[in-house]
Fold each of these.
Amino acid sequence: MSLRGSLREIVESVDGALAAIIMAYDGIPIDEVVAAQTEFDLQLLTVEYATVLKEIKRAVAVIKVGEMEEVSIATGQVRVVMRVLNDELFTVLIMTKNGNFGKGRYLLRLKSPAMAEELG
Amino acid sequence: MSLRGSLREIVESVDGALAAIIMAYDGIPIDEVVAAQTEFDLQLLTVEYATVLKEIKRAVAVIKVGEMEEVSIATGQVRVVMRVLNDELFTVLIMTKNGNFGKGRYLLRLKSPAMAEELG
């Protein structure tokens, strides 16, 4: 399945999904599927969260607990799950507050190996 | 229930739990229950993750998606869930890689309002 196909399947299978994006740590999107119009600034969100992920990667290296695999952040209005694909890229799934967080995490984990392979 | 009682109940109810801690954003623990000897430096972990949480709080304020509520970080060896209690304090649950992440999240969410109240 193509990268975009995988992203689309995730977005369409998860209740409350707003977007699924493959990104680089510098905040530049490689591919994305946006489900619906939203009041949130998704570009600003992903750029800020990419910065956060770099900071977590640094912290994880300091405390020596293995490689960073997955980070999720829930706020009053959105839930975001990020999963590392390789040294340069990660996937981001953005859901509404009441989105199906468990299924989102599950599908991201399930699809990540194939997406990582697709990215070479 | 006392703060320590709540922390103990969380640690004893979650498979794979290593420790439950109430912390300030400066990395200083207010109260903690450690379940078992572990190879990991839990103090270093909590100090580093407190720094990470401050960075996430900053990012969340920039993107305007409501207040930060919960952050989880999974690495090759440990899973950590952090839940905000008030402006100064948060709870941290540290689990092994194969710990019951879902139950850990659930109990932290369930117990947080009472812990926040206990803290005044």
Amino acid sequence: MDRDALRKTYRGYIDCLNARDWQRLDRFVGAAVRYNGAVIGLEGYRAMLRADVAAIPDLRFEIATLVADPPVVASRLLFDCTPVGMLFGLPVNGRHLHFEENVFYTFADGRIDDVRSIIDKAAIAAQL
Amino acid sequence: MDRDALRKTYRGYIDCLNARDWQRLDRFVGAAVRYNGAVIGLEGYRAMLRADVAAIPDLRFEIATLVADPPVVASRLLFDCTPVGMLFGLPVNGRHLHFEENVFYTFADGRIDDVRSIIDKAAIAAQL
């Protein structure tokens, strides 16, 4: 994929997440996807997203910066949400939060094959 | 700058940091640079790096992934180091640590103008 195609695919992936369209996730995420070094596979990825939405019913992914340099996409994601209970081991309990994630995705055969994500958990702790 | 020039400039910046060549930092960092939303300027940036090296005498920046999409560079940085005392409010006290930083740099006029960094502080806490 060239840079524009990669960008377009990534935006499609984010739209898929925001639509909670888990069945369509296989168009964007590879069968043997790795997340922060662990092979979790497509089913593990789907389960992770379902768990995220259970913890954060109003979860919405907003792209602040999108950088495409095939085969890698880097994205700054913003979250403005209301987790219902615990989040990352922190007792959020319905408080409204803003936080960010800086994340790199390596694509293979048109799908996300490797994810390296850091979420700013310290910013969350500081808001509690 | 095109993608290759941006990549080369960024590698020059990292070499400058690893050489502790603070006088040459103005070749890479703009006078009014912002760091995570705050204008700290070149002098503030230099002071931040000096403080980092005081806290981590063996600090070395290693690029794991470098993504260039003008005017933005995104980088995954790896650290393998031995902070002497406190680090990010955590009592490291000479323990050897591995941690990562996912960081975006927006360039203007050939220099870094805006930095958005997330360091994996939770990974550091987990190693203590």
